[in-house]
Amino acid sequence: MLFRKCMRKKNYKQLKRELLKDKVIKQAYEKLGPEFAVIEMIIRKRIEKGLTQKELAQKIGTKQSAISRLESGTYNPSLSFLQKVGEALDAKLKISLAEK
After folding, report:
1. Helices (H), strands (E): how many in the chain?
2. pLDDT attached to residue 4
3. Phi and psi of 85, rounded to 5°?
């Protein structure tokens, strides 16, 4: 029920704020850390560009299911795949390593 209610939100920030009110969702979100940060940026950019998963997939020459797996966190993409996604979203892929 929460998911259906949240899907009516008009933008990513509203959707995220509503979903994170749920303690279980918030815990899972926080555990994902950097991995989810990448996914979050991709989803945010895709929504901002007004693209569906299918449209993004077409832009990079893959299937909608690959974008779905990427956005759900069940796909371990290569750097070249992430580069293609970034280019399709008019974004630059930057990777860094930092000291703990």
Report:
1. 6, 0
2. 53
3. -60, -45
Q: What is the dihedral of CA 23, 28, 34, 36, to 10 degrees?
A: -100
Predicted model pTM:
0.67
d(CA 77, CA 65): 13
- Token pair in block for residue 46: 């895709």
Q: pLDDT means per 10 residues in the chain (100 residues)?
A: 53 83 88 83 95 97 96 91 96 86
In CATH terms, is domain 2-88 a member of 2.60.40.1930? no
| Domain spans in the chain, listed from the N-terminal domain onward | 2-88
Q: Are 42 and 73 a contacting pair, CB within 8 Å? A: no
With a CB cutoff of 8 Å and minimum separation 6, the contacts of 58 are none
Residue 16 dihedral angles phi and psi, to the nearest 5°: -60, -45
